[in-house]
Amino acid sequence: MARSEALNRVSTALVVLNLVLMCMPYADQPEEYERAIDQAETVISLLFIVEMALKLLGLGCSGYWSDKWNKLDGTIVLLTSVDLVLSATGTKVGVNVSFFRILRVARMFRLMRAWPALYQVCSALVGSLYQISNILILFLMMNVIFALLGMQRLRGKPRARESTPEDPRPLAG
User: Fold this and answer.
1) What domain range includes position 146?
2) Which of these, 10, 20, 28, 41, has the minimum number of CB atoms within 10 Å of its CB?
3) What is the pLDDT of residues 36-63, one digit of tens each?
4) Which percentage of the chain shows pLDDT scores above 70?
5) Together in a domain, 66 and 137
6) CA-based radius of gyration for the chain
């Protein structure tokens, strides 16, 4: 059961659903909507705890923690459990609660286990970071040069435009 394909598929579906739920909040949302999303995230977190418990029972503690993906997953589940306990008790701690929510995004890495092509893309991206940094430095230098040229051309002062009846706000100054 702990290594079954069905459990892996359900786990992958839960990861995708969790990512969708994390994208759903918006500014000035109703409290009922926020509570519904929080409850759905709590249910998903509890399902991940159940999955971890099933794997621990099936593989044993040493078998579970010997796999790199299970180490990542187990760490995320344990930190999510801390978040759930702190939320349930209403305990205020020095750590910002959004820190725990950000860690839930790390569940996205579980998708790489299910989709090897995604793992290859991410590996290629990490492998090319050094070369990308050179391009970013060149881009930054170009931005600085054109900013200096713009300041020289405008003599350091933005130009004001006259207000019109259609748009009474002046652009600057």
Assistant:
1) 128-160
2) 28
3) 998 998 899 999 999 999 999 989 999 9
4) 84
5) no
6) 25
